[in-house]
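DM from R.C. (forwarded with permission)

"hey, sorry to bug you on a friday — could you get me a structure for this? deadline for the figure draft is monday and I only need the backbone to look sensible"
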Amino acid sequence: MKKIMWIVAMIPVVVTSVVLQFMPDVIPMHHDLEGNTDRWGSKTESLIFPIIILFITLFWHLLINVFEKKSITAKTEKEQMEAKSSAKVLCVVGLSQAIMFGIMHCFILYSSWIQANTGSSQATIDIAKVSCILCGILFIVLGNFMTKAKRNAAVGLRTVWSMHNDDTWRKSNRFGAICIIVTGLLTIITSIYTSGMTGTIFMLIYLLLAAVVAVIYSKKVYDKEIDK
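My reply, with the result:
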């Protein structure tokens, strides 16, 4: 899956290199909160985001390698399984993020191309709205994989209480997965019917509430486990 992750991460670089051949030399590079263009720049600046995507992918690649090596050097079968499951989930995270950023960048390129050719002073696409919808989809995907990770110190709902034992981990992360999936659904719905800025604010509120509720639940699960 790491190879697929890198292939997906490279696509924005290739697409941008091709698209730049047909772009005007000067394109919109930044917009204010109301969508008004407040900076124009060289079209070559469009390569910055794809390069950032590659560096982010490199980070996930190195982190995945850590857990893959840990699965080889693990002293017990349980530690080996935990490391392997963590590596698999991190692969999903890295791949999903590369896909999300790649799609987002394509929207940015299209918006810049349209605006540069029409001479408009406003963004033609609300990128913040697109970003929120993509984040919502990402939350749903990650939520579905959250329960597959064994107890570890890298991925999942990690609190002092959820890390107590395998039961508290499983129950806490199952509930946490539901919370993040609901957050994703609410983010998508809200973003469709509101502006990008409003959608972003609501998304952060949803995430905060989901985190608080999930942490409280993990404490309750822990308390019940202790009372046994």
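R.C.: lifesaver. The chain has a mean pLDDT of 87.
me: no worries. The first strand starts at residue 26 and ends at 31.
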